Every structure is written in C-alpha cells, then in structure tokens.
C-alpha cells in the first residue's frame, strides 16, 4: 500500500521548498534578469514602431495587435512572476523529492544539493546548449518544434544522468551516455534567419544572468527539499 504519511510529508516539503526557492528566484530575476528584459523590450518596440509618415489608416491593425493584456511594470509584474516561479518550483521540488525517495531519501541538504545540480543540468543546461535563453524581439523557430525538442532533451538528459549515476552494468551506463548526447546530435530547431532587435552584447549578458540565476535557484531548491523532506528508514534504494 502507498505510504500516505510519506506522500504527505513529501507534498508539504515541496510546498515549503517551492515557496522559498520561488521567492528567491523572483528576487534574483528582479535584480539581474528583469532589467535586461526591459532594455530588450525597448529595442523591440523601436524595431516594430510605425514610421511617423505612415498614414493613420494603416496604423490601426498594428495598434490593435499591441492591445493584448500584460501585467503593469512594478509590483504587479513582480507578483505575477513570483506566482509563476513558486508554482514551477513546487512542481520541480516534487520531482526531486520523488526521485530522491526512490534512492532511499535525500538525507539532508547536502544530498539535496546534488539532486538540485542534476535538475539544473537536465532542465536548464542541456536544453540551453541548443536553445539558449532569448530576449524579447529575437527570431526563433516554431514554438511547437522548440517545445518538442525541449521536452525530448529534458527527458533524455534526466534518464541519462540516472543511468550514469545508478546503473550497475556498463551497457546501461553507455546507454545513458547515448541519451545525453542524442538530442544534440539531432539538433535543436532553428529559425530560417537569425535576427534580434537587441544588441548582441545585451543578449550575451542575458544568457549569463539567466544561467547564474537558474544555477542558484536549483541549488537552493535542492538544498531546501533535502532539508525539509527528511529520509525514512523504510525507503530502500531500487
């Protein structure tokens, strides 16, 4: 029978870890990432602005396209970002707790850091090798193609890391290595033309900022879930 007490503890731990890690990520994004996005949005607006000599009747469709709702700058945008970050963090915390539980528990924050690092590699580093973080106004491939490659890369990387870490035979470890490299051999979908409204230096700073922010987020999330989700002596490695 399922261990309901263990499942309840896992859920509570994930909620607490996700809450604090999500708030932590929001604070980092507010300080390091959001200013870069705001700069890129200015370049995007300038690139899509209608020249002043354009007749008014031709400007109506363009203005209609820009009436889509979005959070206001300031506390409203920060609040929506925090809600999204906390929701994602809770889901990721549940994944880390469930994976660690299969190996006998996370046994404290130090082991949680290792699981957080694995999550960082699977969910950010590996996909970013083919689809690096992009600023607004960047030309990209079709969304459905990018989503498919992202999911494939995350799944292959997570399973590949699991096999490399826990498989007992060299054949399975080799298969794990194949899984790690296969999405990159396949190649991420790319746009027909590479173009960006923002300068290349701003895009480089954005990639660095998001890489650091996600690394800190995953380490904090892993450490917290390892701290909150205490191991159980009846959990045995599989």
Notable features of this structure?
238 residues; 2 domains; flat
Question: Explain this structure to me?
Answer:
It is a single chain. With 238 residues, the protein is mostly helical. The chain folds into two domains: 130 residues, no CATH class; 56 residues. Helix content is 74%, strand content 0%. The chain contains seven helices and no strands. α4 packs across α5, α4 packs antiparallel against α7 and α5 packs antiparallel against α6. The longest helix is centred in the N-terminal third of the chain and has 45 residues. The two termini are 17 Å apart. The C terminus is likely disordered.
Set out the fold topology.
Blueprint: H1 4-48, H2 56-65, H3 75-102, H4 109-130, H5 143-166, H6 170-186, H7 200-228
Helix pairs in contact: 1-3, 1-7, 3-7, 4-5, 4-7, 5-6
Radius of gyration: 21 Å
User: Sheet with the most strands?
Assistant: none
**Could you tell me the mean pLDDT?**
85
Strand residue content: under 5%
First and last CA, distance: 17 Å
What low-confidence regions span 5 or more consecutive residues with pLDDT below 50? 52-67, 232-238
Work out the helix count.
Answer: 7
Structural class: mainly alpha
**How many discrete structural domains?**
2
- Seen as an oligomer or otherwise, the chain set is single chain
Shape annotation: flat
Pfam family, one: CbtA
Keywords: Membrane, Transmembrane, Transmembrane helix
InterPro entries: CbtA_put
Protein name: Cobalt transporter
């Amino acid at each position: 029978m399922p261990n309901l007490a263990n499942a309840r503890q896992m859920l509570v731990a994930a909620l607490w870890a996700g809450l604090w890690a999500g708030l932590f990520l929001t604070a980092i994004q507010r300080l390091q990432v959001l200013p870069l996005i705001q700069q890129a949005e200015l370049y995007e607006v300038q690139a899509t602005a209608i020249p002043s000599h354009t007749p008014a009747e031709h400007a109506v469709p363009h203005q209609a396209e820009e009436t889509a709702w979005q959070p206001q700058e300031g506390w409203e945008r920060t609040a929506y970002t925090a809600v999204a970050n906390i929701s994602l963090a809770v889901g990721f915390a549940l994944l880390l707790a469930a994976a660690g539980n299969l190996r006998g528990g996370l046994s404290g924050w130090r082991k949680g850091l290792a699981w957080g690092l694995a999550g960082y590699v699977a969910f950010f580093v590996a996909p970013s090798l083919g689809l690096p973080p992009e600023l607004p106004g960047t030309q990209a491939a079709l969304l459905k193609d990018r989503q498919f490659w992202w999911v494939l890369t995350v799944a292959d990387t997570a399973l590949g890391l699991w096999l490399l870490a826990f498989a007992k035979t060299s054949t399975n470890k080799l298969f794990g290595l194949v899984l790690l490299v296969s999405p990159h051999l396949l190649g991420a979908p790319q746009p027909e033309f590479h173009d960006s409204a923002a300068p290349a230096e701003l895009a480089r700073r954005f990639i660095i900022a998001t890489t650091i922010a996600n690394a800190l987020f995953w380490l904090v999330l892993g450490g917290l879930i390892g701290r909150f989700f205490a191991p159980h002596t009846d959990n045995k490695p599989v």
